[in-house]
Amino acid sequence: MKDGFIKVAAVTLKVRVADVEFNILKVNELIHELNEKRVRLAVFPELTITGYTCGDLFFQEALIERSMSALDALLKMTADTKVIAVVGLPFSYRGKLYNTAAVIYGGKLLGLIPKSYLPNYNEFYEKRYFTPAFSENSEIMFQSEKVAFGKNLLFACEEVPGFRFAVEICEDLWAPISPSVGHTLNGATIIVNLSASNEVVGKADYRRLLVSATSGRLNCGYIYADAGKGESTTDMVFAGHNLIAENGGILAESKLFSESYIISEIDVKKLENERRKNSSFEAKSSSEYKVISFHMEAEETELTRTFSKLPFLPAEKEERDLHCRDILAMQSNALTKRIEHISAKSLVIGLSGGLDSCLALLVSVMAMKLLGRNTQDILAVTMPCFGTSDRTRRNAEELATELGVTFRNIDIKDSVLSHFKDIGQKKDCYDVTYENAQARERTQVLMDLANQRGGIVIGTGDLSEMALGWSTYNGDHMSMYGVNCSVPKTLIRYMVEFYAEHETENEAVKAVLADILATPISPELLPGETISQKTEEIVGPYELHDFFLYYVVRFGFSAKKVLRIAKIAFEGVYEEETIRKWLKDFYRRFFNSQFKRSCVPDGPKVGSVSLSPRGDWRMPSDACYRIWMEELEDN
User: Fold this and answer.
1) Which end of the chain is more exposed for a tag (fewer CB within 10 A), N or C?
2) Residues 198 and 329 in one domain
3) What is the DSSP string of 101-143?
4) Average pLDDT over residues 311-323
5) Cross-strand pairs, 250
6) Coil, strand or helix at 199
């Protein structure tokens, strides 16, 4: 439960219809099994204790009374566990029968929640037996204690403030305005659903979409436990389709017709961070709701959920290709708007032979084609200096030629040496001035060429470089429109691969793109005929920095939490101390480089993370990163 991770389960068990004793023994067995797995919130199907398909047996006094005594027995049997279990049963109150969920924990009944929406169409006829939940909460007597009874109950953990859950039952999820809307606006971070949703062709896809979309729309975790084997097949079949979702994503899902449970961990701190940023999520504190507190030790949660090493990329190739196609479309269409608005006669790009400038050129070519303009209106300029390798220079020229853009080679060595003479810089002093003078000279050349041609300079810098400040202020830091500004380094590689595979049939273009992809990332600012500087040896692996960037900016995770999940994601790749070292470096660079981000050029946001000072990220340039470093020292 530390770091906000709550281990949860959605359970399907093989019931016997109307065999209450058999069913509670099975529930008890599963609760103890889940307790051994350190699950802290387990959800069972609708009407667990009796089975959903009892039909007119629900009118039988024996079944109703036996259900209540079974609940009492179940409380005693599970009193020694640390699992909050939510089980379904019929409950009689004031002469009416209700389809309810019982929240049990530590031998106590914390609350009873009646179903709000009763389906009475097609194969469903619940109104024949049950009464919908009434609007106000009430109380019942159980085990000589008062117990809350009503649809508006919130269950809150005292030790983990973000752990607050509420209940809805099956059809409640399908309703136009589901109870979960009110539950989440009043503070529930997790919604549990006890369901008996029969299976028909295509329904599983819709159910999955509904659960996923609800968790995303309400910034919540959602646990959906479905009835399965053992239910009557007189007219229906139940497949036990269990789902655990979080903020729009599916964390775990069962196979249809499996008798089992699924387990994952819902991150309530992540959900709270999402709500803090979402101004449309209007928190309420309605008097209609009753908060029921419980105590649970905030222990370390062993994580079973996985974390991708590349969070900016979908895992599956088909989805990743669609991702790349969409981003290329966003970049190129954004650029067409800028070209049309200012009536730009040309685009000017500094082409280094590396990945970033390669992608910027590809986007520029796509933009010109969208506008029906000649790609010769693009000027690609390579500007070799002291550290430029033959490989990158050759690749730059070949790519420009094969794409049909205008190409120029402008050697800037003499200009830089003249500048060194002007400022008294020794030409064999390989310091930051030596490196930055080259970057600034290149920018001056590009800006002046753009003036000559009535055009604009297209920026090539990416999101990762912006986060780390890995750019020369008023050098490659500056342009007139930055098409790569919200594309991280780890994604750029896949986008270039996608272009080569799907966007061109030119074999020469494919070949040069393959060589660019195989070229080490380097600023090429120090002397040498081959690449002597390798960026990742200086600033650290980009796959680590992009991972840090995603969870720090997108979700606001603490430093110790980022370290924790990075150790899981990169297990077997990097040792903990290596991750810790580069995470410290990330924070140092991120905070110290904000002044560069405060004045970056315009550029399109294409993903969930952006560092534009006009859009997603507003940060003082002189903020202190001490508390983040202290977290890493104390961890």
Assistant:
1) C
2) no
3) EEEEETTEEEEEEE-S----STT--GGGT--PPPSS-EEEEET
4) 94
5) 245
6) coil
pLDDT tens readout for residues 191-236: 999 999 999 999 999 999 999 999 999 999 999 999 999 999 999 9
Do 231 and 326 belong to one domain?
no
CATH number of the domain residue 438 falls in? 3.40.50.620
Per-residue pLDDT tens for 32-68? 999 999 999 999 999 999 999 999 999 999 999 999 9
What is the rounded distance in angstroms from the CA atom of residue 464 to the CA atom of residue 123?
55
For tokens 């794409």, what's the residue?
A: 403
Q: What is the count of structural domains for the chain? A: 2
In contact, 559 and 597? CB cutoff 8 Å: no
**β strands within 465-545, DSSP E:** 481-482
Closest CA to 613 of 623, 628, 603: 603
Q: Which domain holds residue 137?
A: 2-294
Query: Does 337 lie in the same domain as 209?
Result: no
The interaxial angle of helices 542-549 and 576-592, nearest 10 deg, is 60
* CA–centroid distance for 634 within its chain: 27
Domain end point (choices 294, 309, 334): 294
Question: Are 510 and 397 contained in the same domain?
Answer: yes
| Alpha carbon distance 335, 339 (integer Å) | 6
Do 328 and 184 fall into the same domain? no
Helix and strand totals (H; E) in the chain: 20, 20
CA distance 490 to 485: 13
In sign, the C-alpha dihedral spanning 167, 173, 179, 183 is positive
Contact status, residue 191 vs residue 85, Cβ threshold 8 Å: no
Q: What is the CA radius of gyration of the chain?
A: 30
Single-letter residue type at 142: F
- Tell me which residues are annotated as active site: 46, 115, 170
